[in-house]
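Incident review: delayed structure delivery

Summary: a single-chain prediction request sat in the queue longer than the usual turnaround. Root cause was a stuck worker, restarted by the on-call engineer. No data loss occurred. The affected request and its eventual output are reproduced below so the record is complete for anyone auditing the incident later.

Affected input:
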Amino acid sequence: MMGGNDQQAYDRGTSLFSPDGRIYQVEYAREAVARGAPSLGIRTGDGIVFAAMSQASSSLMEPESIEKLHKLDDHLGTASSGHVADARQLIDFAREQSQVSRLRYGEPVGVEDLTKSVTDKIQENTQLGGTRPYGAALLIGGIENGEPRLFGADPSGTPNEWRATVIGGGREEINAVLEDEWEEGLDLGTGLSLAVRALRNHEEEISANSLSLSTVTVDDGYRDLPKDEVADAVAEADGHAGSDDEADDAE
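Output delivered after worker restart:
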């Protein structure tokens, strides 16, 4: 019979499997991500849409200082959730890898290749003693050979490609909207509106000040939307919700 000290060893060890095949520290890292404000990514026919909610720890904090959407390269962006400091380390690593590709090979790094470099780094911390898993998850999206691609990287170091997905809090509610409304060939404007509606299924009160939006397209590359365009996307999502309500009343 296993004693209490043995159980604690499995609980604390980052490189130890428990008898039922679990690595508890990775699960705790996933829980840290789940406690963060949500960020999502949507692949459209025109490019990638990123959206993130801000979660200020104090009313005195400037909302602009909370950065969850980041440019990695001209053709690449990322959204993060979880521990900010951990996410920043991974984002800096991704930027470095992107620049290494340009300097070494004279061409932009592929979205999938960069994601796998990041997830390899994440995975190392799940099997080395004296380290802990990163308490952050990333969505990495961009243009590769003229086509938009979107990947996720979670604390286990697993890379998955997505049509649309969310990291952080409210995953079930937000994914429910994405699964119902995403369709192949969405244009960029529809993707922005869908992003706002999906987040609203978790957080009803969304304003331009609490929301960040960015896009990655073939023509414009990575672009952070200014607050007036974020406000337009919120208004468009409001209008879409109103038309849905009217349709329900008509039925």
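Verification: The first strand starts at residue 39 and ends at 43.
Action items: add queue-age alerting; document worker restart procedure.
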